[in-house]
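User: Reviewer 2 asked us to show a designed sequence for the structure in our supplementary figure. I'm pasting the structure tokens here. Could you produce the per-position amino acids so we can include them in the response letter?
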């Protein structure tokens, strides 16, 4: 990831390319990323280049989708090949986040998710 203003590299991983990313719509300083074939989500602060704020590591399968809550600057949902959608609370950053606050297990792998902007209690998965 690169900032075009100053051509600053915000984050790079020589071993795994960034495959997915999601901007925090309530606080645009934060980006969540998932690397190719990775089981974790890396949260970045664009004001502190190259240093992850936190890594979220509870998935047992490759992360396929990530999305910030449309109504909150500190909640994010992730979905993976382990058939789980996990909601994380990042209120206490920079304290490490060990576990999600909510976990939903589907009948099959979850490829994508979307958090409703109008019905903020609803998250769709498929």
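Assistant: Here is a per-position design you can include in the supplement:
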């Amino acid at each position: 990831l690169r900032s075009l203003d100053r051509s600053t590299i915000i984050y790079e991983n020589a071993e795994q390319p960034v495959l997915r990313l999601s901007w925090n719509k309530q606080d645009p300083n934060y980006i969540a990323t998932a690397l190719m074939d990775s089981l974790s989500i890396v949260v970045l602060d664009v004001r502190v280049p190259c240093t992850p704020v936190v890594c979220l590591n509870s998935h047992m399968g490759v992360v396929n989708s990530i999305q910030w809550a449309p109504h909150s600057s500190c909640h994010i949902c992730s979905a993976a090949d382990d058939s789980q959608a996990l909601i994380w609370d990042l209120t206490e950053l920079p304290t490490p986040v060990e576990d999600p606050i909510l976990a939903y297990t589907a009948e099959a792998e979850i490829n994508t998710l979307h958090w409703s902007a109008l019905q903020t209690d609803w998250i769709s998965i498929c």
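For the response letter, you might also mention the following. The chain has a mean pLDDT of 92. The chain has no helices and twelve strands.
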